[in-house]
Design a protein that fits this description.
Length: 507
């Protein structure tokens, strides 16, 4: 008994320490005056422009001027925050940060509602370990934090015990979560297959299972279609735009194997199931085997989107709450007949924490670089020097290293400056074999914007694409820019290039 109390106390202390550390990381990211990745501003900007009346997706058949391949909810949540708090870097990150924090809280509260002990605390450590390992994807300004939250909420809706499911409430919660998730990423329903399997496993008859399935299908479809009733959010345009950037892009062997290594961590319940099977063969084992089998199936289905160039193992990440929940249920099912299941769970949770340490070190180095460079402050200083009728846009230099300074470009749009194009869209268009709109080059060639900010000391628009297919902007574009603009002055991090005509031309 004393040993049990000690192990329970140690597990709870570890859980408290893990949660405290995650809180520190989230708070530090919330205060970070910048972004970690170029997709973050590319979610912040369309959300702001949509509030101003611009359609969220380009019209079907029209030229694309922005990569908006995510579902509408990825942008509408940010738009909702802006409508309350105004446009800022902090506001653009508030939604995903809140989602990440709520996912942790919901998971912890769910454990308090169920039989616990040391295993419940170990589950919290494992949940935190996955959050740390998948940093910053687990909390940054992308759809992923919302997906983690929705999967966690769906798990929390399941019956508290393994008795038969009663009523439609769990099915409705799961269905709404699925509908919202599909409005973040089109394939996100796959994350919920193990949750549905868990619900079906405690459904007493095939008739009830069919009824629950019908409810889930109907409610999730209605939920997923709801955002497309909003002005400027077209389902047809969304599908056409997503197809433009997704269809025809094959997988990458390198990305596939990296994703597979991370995916192997999500198979930890398979090991626990094998340990339990050696000691117990009954209805409980059959139920757990069914649920773990669906988890494996879901992981297999997700390996395709996770293996595409530009993608990665974070595509698998929203499955981790399911994996932790499965390990916890297997540990409770084992009881005294298979104590190795609990030992495996504890070792696995500790292992997650250990292997996340290099990830966290790299993350804090990124934080430190952004804090030291303070590119956002530099952009605000340039905005403050603009004349009454002057306009400014963010340009790009010659290196991907200095490209990171341009991630703060939403500050210009928040300040009412124009938006025409950005480098990521051009990279993506070229990467999938799509034509880059000629109006991009025409825009700079006729000097429609007075000023461009270019990373200091670098040749304008000369950087190479991360796809490895040569320069992002072609020679005609670069020559047109140099013919139309001259370097006027410099701020701390940017050269300010001004139109040679002295004022922007009329389109």
């Amino acid at each position: 008994m004393r040993a049990q109390r000690l192990s329970r106390g140690a597990a709870r202390a570890a859980a408290a320490a893990a949660l405290a550390y995650l809180a520190y990381v989230l708070i530090r990211y919330a205060g970070l005056d910048g972004y970690l990745d170029h997709m973050e501003p590319n979610i912040a900007i369309p959300a702001w422009l949509w509030l101003g009346g611009r359609p969220l997706y380009p019209a079907a058949g029209a030229e694309a001027d922005f990569v908006t391949t995510y579902g509408p909810l990825s942008y509408l949540i940010g738009a909702g925050v802006y409508s309350l708090a105004g446009g800022s870097i902090a506001a653009s990150k508030a939604g995903p940060l809140l989602a990440a924090a709520l996912a942790i809280v919901v998971f912890a509260i769910t454990l308090l509602r169920r039989p616990g002990g040391a295993l419940a605390a170990i589950a919290v450590v494992a949940f935190a370990g996955f959050m740390a390992l998948f940093s910053p994807h687990a909390f940054w300004n992308r759809p992923d934090p919302y997906l983690i939250l929705l999967v966690t909420v769906a798990l929390a809706s399941l019956p508290r015990t393994e008795t038969s499911a009663q009523g439609l409430a769990p099915a409705i919660v799961i269905a709404v979560a699925i509908g919202l998730a599909v409005d973040l990423k089109a394939h996100a329903f796959v994350f919920f297959l193990p949750v549905i399997a868990r619900l079906w496993a405690v459904t007493p008859t095939a008739t009830n299972a069919f009824r629950l399935g019908a409810v889930i299908a109907a409610v999730s479809l209605a939920t997923a279609l709801a955002p497309f009733a909003l002005p400027g959010v077209s389902l047809a345009d969304y599908v056409a735009n997503m197809t433009r950037f997704v269809a025809g892009v094959g997988g990458s062997a390198e990305v596939f194997w990296k994703s597979l290594r991370y995916g192997a961590l999500l198979l930890a319940p398979v090991v626990a199931l094998a340990i339990l099977a050696a000691r117990r063969c009954d209805a409980v084992l059959a139920r757990e085997a069914f649920c773990v089998g669906v988890l494996v199936l879901s992981l297999g289905l997700l390996l395709y989107p996770a293996s595409r160039p530009g993608s990665g193992a974070h595509q698998l990440m929203p499955l981790f709450p399911v994996a932790v929940d499965a390990l916890l249920r297997l540990g409770r099912a084992a009881h005294s007949r298979a104590p190795l299941v609990g030992a495996w769970f504890a070792a696995f949770a500790l292992g997650l924490v250990v292997i996340s340490v290099p990830v966290q070190k790299r993350l804090h180095r990124q934080f430190a670089v952004i804090e030291a460079r303070a590119a956002a402050s530099d952009v605000r200083a340039v905005i403050a020097t603009l004349g009454e009728d002057e306009t400014v846009e963010m340009g790009f230099g010659a290196t991907l290293t200095r490209y990171h300074d341009t991630f703060v470009r939403p500050l210009l749009i928040f300040a009412g400056q124009p938006f025409t194009f950005e480098a990521m869209t051009v990279m993506e268009l070229k990467g999938v074999g799509q034509r880059v709109p000629a109006r991009f080059a025409a825009h700079v060639g006729i000097c429609e914007t007075n000023i461009w900010m270019i990373p200091k000391g670098e040749a304008p628009f000369a950087m190479s694409s991360y796809w490895g297919d040569g320069p992002v902007f072609d020679e005609v574009f670069r020559k047109g820019f140099l013919d139309a603009y001259r370097r006027d002055r410099a701020s701390r991090l940017f050269d300010v290039w001004r139109c040679k005509l002295g004022a922007a031309a009329t389109p």
